[in-house]
Design goal:
Elements: H1 3-13, H2 16-26, H3 35-42, H4 59-63, E1 80-82, E2 87-94, E3 99-103, E4 106-109, H5 110-113, E5 127-132, E6 140-142, E7 147-155, H6 164-169, H7 173-176, E8 179-185, E9 190-196, E10 204-206, E11 213-214, E12 219-223, E13 228-233, E14 238-240, E15 249-250, E16 255-259
Antiparallel strand pairs: 1-16, 2-5, 2-15, 3-4, 5-13, 6-12, 7-8, 7-11, 8-9, 9-13, 10-12, 14-16
Length: 262
């Protein structure tokens, strides 16, 4: 099939009601029969799941599973920022005058990504990660830092795919898709955790109850099917681990870099 045809199919399937229908089935008891096939298709390590595969009530219940305790240790050095998710790095670098440059060939403004929040000014020359979660990955999102939740916002939008095809061929999907934005204040500075919805994602959910203060590695939210997290660091706040690059895979709790002394 040609690229224009794929783009047309993606446009047609990016409507929120399609994701709502898909999500309703994934939450139904009828969907539980697909769990073994789903796990086999995507190579998911069912032995890592908190519960036995037969104990999950639906495909969505399995997809949002927790892992067995101890499988994702949090980096012990508190001066380090940790990965909030299991993911592949699909974007990494300095923010230049409010612009994220060349994420799969496309540029994004911080203003668009943060829905024109007044807090945009804090990130004009900061640092960013784009972290892509495939269907294989663990889909709970944890706090990358210890700090207080300053503000959160739910931005309505499309549900375009955020995989290789979506990021490269659809127009600026990270700033057009549905997003859940959380601003967290660390004593060194502010971090924005932008959770981006995707194709066939019925919703992004905060954990309940959501605490006012988060510890590094504490649960923050979860995706109902695969998506992306964008991490934004305030200006002059963060230095990345030098070996991380495009295509690097990280696990939740793994070291991403260090806070800069001020």
């Amino acid at each position: 099939m040609s690229k224009p045809f794929f783009k047309l199919l993606t446009e047609l399937s990016s409507r929120k009601w399609v994701s709502q229908v898909t999500g309703a089935f994934a939450r139904s008891r009828a969907s539980r029969m697909f769990i073994p096939r789903f796990a086999q298709t995507y190579g998911i390590r069912i032995e890592d799941a908190e519960k036995h595969v037969k104990d999950y009530k639906s495909l969505n219940d399995f997809f949002t599973r927790r892992l067995k305790p101890g499988l994702r240790p949090i980096h012990e050095d508190e001066t380090r920022v940790v990965s909030p998710v299991d993911a592949m790095i699909t974007g990494i670098g300095d923010i230049k005058d409010g612009l994220i440059v060349n994420v799969k060939g496309q540029d994004y403004t911080i203003e668009e990504l943060l829905n024109r929040s007044p807090r945009t000014v804090n990130y004009k020359n900061g640092f960013y990660f784009v972290l892509y979660l495939s269907p294989t990955d663990y889909h709970r999102i944890h706090s990358p830092i210890t700090g207080d939740i300053l503000e959160k916002e739910h931005v309505l939008g499309k549900v375009y795919p955020v995989n290789e095809f979506g990021l490269r061929h659809m127009k600026r999907v990270l700033s057009r898709n549905e997003r859940l934005i959380t601003f967290i204040q660390h004593h060194t500075g502010e971090v924005a955790v932008v959770k981006v919805g995707a194709l066939n994602v019925s919703s992004i959910q905060y954990v309940k109850p959501l605490p006012k203060t988060l510890e590094r590695g504490q649960e923050l939210a979860y995706f109902e099917f695969g998506s992306t997290v964008v991490l934004l660091f305030e200006d002059d706040m963060f230095e990345p681990r030098p070996d991380l690059k495009l295509g690097s895979k990280v696990k939740m709790g793994e070291d991403l870099g260090r806070f800069l002394d001020k």
